[in-house]
Amino acid sequence: MRIRRSVTRFFGNLVIPALSAAAISYFGYYAIWGTRGLIALTDVKARLSVEQARLDTLSDQRARLEKRIQLLRSGDPDVIEEVARQQMLGSKPGQVEVERNRN
Question: What Cα–Cα distance (Å) separates residue 73 from each residue in 10, 33, 66, 77, 90?
């Protein structure tokens, strides 16, 4: 009887609180430094903002290209002339075409 009390006292006073502290420490560590912890969350948020900015840039480029395609399909003479200059002359922005008189 006396041994049983000492064993239950031992478990009640030492082992159960130690196991509880170990479990709390384990989960607390991973809540902060784990692969899905708070530090990883800040890293993911930073990468998300970079990728969001990249997505915005690509969306703007796509919208401009779609507008340009729409103008080409509708037959806008200015856009067609610009494309012809780029393909035929290999012109660069800022270059001016000078027509020659052929006599």
Answer: 86, 55, 10, 11, 22
pLDDT digits (tens, 9 = 90+) for 50-98: 999 999 999 999 999 999 999 989 988 888 888 877 776 666 677 776 7
CA gap 69, 62 in Å, rounded: 10
CA distances from 56 to 42, 51, 53, 67, 70 (A): 21, 9, 5, 17, 21
Residues with Cβ within 8 Å of 36's Cβ and at least 6 positions away in sequence, in order, are 30
Q: pTM score, two decimals? A: 0.55
List the one residue out of 56, 79, 60 whose CA is nearest residue 68: 79
Q: 16-33 and 38-74 helices cross at what angle (nearest 10)? A: 30
Query: What three-state secondary structure class fits 5?
Result: helix
